[in-house]
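Researcher: For the annotation table, I need structure tokens for Flagellar biosynthetic protein FliQ. Please keep the output clean. Sequence:
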Amino acid sequence: MNPSAVLDIGLQALTTAAKLSAPVLVTALVVGLAISLVQSITQLQEVTLSFVPKAVAVVIALAVSGHWMIAEMITFTNDLFARIPSLLGSA
């Protein structure tokens, strides 16, 4: 197994991780920004007011994109397993 193959697998893993975390992180970012804006306008600084909506939005984002996330992980894993013979040099 040569270093370029290791770097390629690492790059694919990082790209897959970024794609899978994007829906949850973007949802939390948007909801957090909106709640911060509302708190700033109303001058209501309550910790639970920022945490609960974010947690609910993240759960909804996971429920909506969960099937896609699992499908992406299965595809990545199958591709990795399919590359094992070529990485070992037997193919």
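Researcher: And a one-line annotation?
Model: The chain has a mean pLDDT of 92.
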